[in-house]
Prior knowledge:
The protein is α/β, with parallel strands linked by helices. 40% of the residues lie in helices and 20% in strands.
Amino acid sequence: MPAPAAIEPRLLRAFVAVAEELHFTRAAARLYVAQQALSRDVRRLERELGAELFVRTTRQVTLTADGERLLPHARRVLAAQDDLLAAFGQARPLLVDLNSAGLLTGRRVLHRARELAPDCELMARYESGLTGAAAEVLAGRLDVSFGRFAGLDPALRTGLEQQPVRYEPMAVVLPDDHPLAALPEVPLAALAGETVYAGAGNPRTREWTDLALHLFEGRGIRLASPLPLPVGDEEFERIMAKTRNVILAVVDFPAMPRSVLRPLVDPVPLSPVSLVWRKGLVHPGLTALRRAASDIARAEGWLRRPTDRWIPAADDHVMSVPAPAGCDLSPAPAAR
C-alpha cells in the first residue's frame, strides 16, 4: 500500500495515548473521548499506514514492531504541532498538577494565570506529589507541576525546567487533644520523641519524605512507618485519625476534623516550592503561569526568607538558580 499523502494529527494523538497507556480505556479517559471513537481512530490509522500497530488480547495491549517504529515519529509530529498552535494562540489545554486540592500555592498561581490568559484552557490535575507528577510530565501526560525540585531524582531533573515560586513555612497538624495543640506555635525541639507522618511509603511524594528526613536529623524526631497510600481526603483523614500521628505539613494545609494546625518555629523550616515543566515546552499557558508565579511571589514576598529559618543546602542552591529564559516575566499591565 502506498504511503498516505497526509495523516490527521488526531489519529496520531490517539495512537500515542494508547501506546503510552497500553490500555484503551485509560487512553480514552486521558483524551476525553469515547473508547469506541478512540478504537475507530486507531483502526483508521492502521488502514492508512497499511500496518498493524497493536497486538490486542483480552488481557493486554502491546505494540507491534511497526508500532514501536512509529511512536518516536508520532511524538515529534505532535510536539511540532503543539509548538505551532501555541505560537499562534491556538494551544491545546495545558494540564497543571496542583498536588492536592487543598494546597494554596499552586491554586493561587493557576487562578492568576487564568486571569492573565483567559483564552487558554488551563486544566487542574491532582497527583499528590512532585515525584509522581514529574514522571507524568516527562511522559507528556501532564505539562506542569509544583513542588520541591531539589528532592527529585537527578535522572528526572535532567528533563525538566523549574522556576522558584515560594519558600512555604512548614507546620504540623496535631490531634486537638495533643499536649502541643495548646501552643500557638510549635518549637521544633518540642517534637523530640514524637512520631511524625511525612508521606512515608507514598512513592509519589518521596521529595517530601526526604525533606522531612533532613529536618528530623539530629532532633530526636521519628519518621512514621510507611502506610498504605490513602486516596482522597476522606481516606487520608480516616488513616490519620486512626494512627494519631503528628503530620508534617505547610501553613496553608487545609483544615482536618478534630485536628489543629500549628506553625513550626525556632527555626522556621521552609518548604521550597518551584513551578516545574518539561524542557522544550512552549505554550501560552506556561507563559501565563510563570508570570503569575512571579507576580504573586513579588507581591506576597513568597521568596523572602526569614532570618531564623531552616532549609537544606541543596534546596538553597536550586532556589537561587535564575529561572530559565523563555517568556516575558514582566508584570502584567493594569486592567482598564
